[in-house]
Specification:
Two copies of one chain form a homodimer.
Chain A: E1 2-5, E2 10-15, H1 19-27, E3 33-39, H2 40-54, E4 58-64, H3 73-85, E5 93-98, H4 100-112, E6 118-123, H5 126-132, E7 140-142, E8 145-149, E9 157-161, H6 170-187, H7 189-197, H8 203-219, H9 235-244, H10 251-268, H11 277-286, H12 297-304, E10 315-322, E11 325-331, H13 333-344
Parallel strand pairs in A: 2-9, 3-4, 3-5, 5-6, 6-9
Antiparallel strand pairs in A: 1-2, 7-8, 10-11
Chain lengths: 347, 347
């Protein structure tokens, strides 16, 4: 399966173990040097497959410990040093081989080394396959804030091979699944009912449908100033929950809870006609996704003060009005406090 | 005088002490916080004018020692910390008030803080007025290499007030003048003869004409992959000379010498019909610009190995074929060695 992203001139291949696709792409640039950026977990699992993909090419590997801590300024500097010391120039290419952390830091390095060199995304987690590997956002964490520094920069090619999902545990799959639920609430009622009732997921289908929804929101608003912001459904509270839990809840779990809270608040505010948060909770429970998290409203608001979506003291919140449709609302911090309180409610 | 840059949606005002222009622009965003980034020299000279311009607005000042050393990763990190600690968000704005160093690092911070916030350029040197303040390139130095890390990102407004030139010494003026000579060799014979014969420069005229030439080369090739590269006339050898001189020669002086060497080489290679390097030398001497620099070819080639314009072991050199026209030639390192040798020659 193939998606052509015309606006930003790249191709996404969605395949099951079809390495010829990426080998063909890489072999078009046989004169280039490649830097594969990856983490130790992914490397330990897939070094043989990686070597097969890179066979015959001039390539280097840069790996770091798996996990959010590696998305740091220090690591960003180290990768830049490595590129420089190995004389990488503008014709050379970065491959991001891993999940969101690898993709985000690799994309930021690619965007800024020599003011930008090409990069290729080879995501290995469900979350990165359906979210961060497309859309052009990249970044690193800074002073404990997520993606505080970063840019918008698009890959030249995205190779999504869902055979890589076979080594992921359930919680990691769910990390992506919650974002797919979010896409369904955003725009696709049928996808929601498919996810709700289904037990054995058809990855090809859900990856393809998720990417099409994401790309539709991105294409008219690459720089995230309008329509694209709707992709942040569940993320305002979600980021706060993720942070308050000290990352014991993962990204998907947190924004899933955020989505439920927004649905509940939307109903109580009279924006949504029915309280479909109940339906979300049932669907989430079917996939062992958490559906609530206890927190202090003041504590979460303190974290949300640094939200990137704040503009002139107003913050954007995305409220679902039914399954398949959301609205974008700019609110003050006092209004946000009320929305958070309404969202908490009882199950 | 006003230039409207349609492609990237910003305005350049070229004025003499007409601060109402910038005040009007800033007052359209009265709700924003401003960070003025500047160096200590500029601040000491112009703190009163700055305070007048910023009067009534919510602004902060971040200043650092003048000079190339401040274009560092460390300084980049410090500015990001300052923004974060003062809760700057996406609706807030950076103002770069100074020369090229201030503009380059400020632009890179603006491009990457929260994945990009708005910035305004207020250049104070002739070089930054006619070159780095427009065109979108920014960056910091890294491991002794210039602009090794950076991006492409455009300002929202450029305020060029050439009254700021009144505190510049002759060498600093010449730093810009050499780049204006370069523009004339690139595209405008009349500008060349004006510069050559003129003793009292009409700043408004030369700034306006230089920017129009630069913008013409940038607009079809923002990302520097084709036509825009011609703006690098004199820069390949020039960057090497600047570095070999340990920055005792400034940027303009170095690329001026580079332009002379390229003209001489082009003639000896049969690409240029006449040896107009002699005419360049006469013109440069009229403005007390240096016209040669002794260096070892191997030493300069070692530096040029890190040139950002290298792509797959080929390097771009720009060779003038007459005053007002240049060609772009991709050469190997061995060919570059020959060109450098031909360029050296005798005066």
């Amino acid at each position: 399966m193939k998606i052509q992203v015309k606006e930003n001139n790249y191709t996404i291949d969605i395949v099951y173990k079809c390495e010829e696709k990426i080998k063909n792409f890489l072999n078009k640039n046989r004169d280039s040097k490649y830097l594969v950026i990856t983490d130790e977990n992914v490397y330990n699992l897939y070094s043989e497959r990686l070597k097969n993909i890179m066979y015959g090419l001039n390539f280097y590997i840069f790996k770091f410990p798996a996990g959010e801590k590696s998305k740091s300024m220090e690591n960003y500097i180290n990768i830049n040093k490595f590129l420089l010391e190995n004389n990488f120039n503008r014709g050379d290419i970065i491959i991001a081989f891993g999940g969101g952390v690898v993709g985000d830091i690799s994309g930021f390095v690619a965007a800024t080394y020599l003011r930008g060199i090409d990069f290729i995304a080879m995501p290995t987690t469900l979350l990165s396959m359906i979210d961060s590997s497309v859309g052009g956002k990249n970044g690193i964490n800074f002073m404990n804030l997520k993606n505080q520094i970063g840019s918008f920069y698009f890959p030249k090619y995205v190779y999504i091979d869902y055979s890589f999902l076979e080594t992921l545990d359930d919680r990691n799959i769910n990390n992506g699944l919650a974002e797919i639920f979010k896409y369904s609430v955003l725009k696709d009622k049928n996808l929601f009912y498919y996810l709700k009732s289904c037990n054995k997921l058809d990855y090809k289908k859900i990856i393809y449908e998720s990417l099409n929804i994401k790309l539709d929101f991105v294409k008219e608003d690459e720089r995230d100033k309008g329509k694209r912001q709707k992709l942040n459904l569940g993320h305002t509270i979600g980021h706060g929950i993720e942070s308050l839990s000290n990352y014991k809840l993962n990204h998907g779990e947190s924004i899933g809870i955020g989505t439920i809270y927004m649905a509940r608040a939307a109903y109580k505010m009279g924006i949504a006609k029915s309280d479909f948060s109940k339906e979300l909770i049932l669907a989430f429970k079917n996939h062992n996704l958490p559906t609530s998290y206890d927190f202090d409203t003041d504590e979460i608001l303190e974290i949300l003060k640094h939200d990137k979506k704040i503009n002139k003291n107003l913050i954007n919140v995305i409220l679902p009005i039914k399954i398949g449709e959301v609205i974008n609302k700019k609110v003050t911090f006092d209004e946000l406090r009320e929305i958070v309180e309404l969202g908490k409610g009882n199950e």
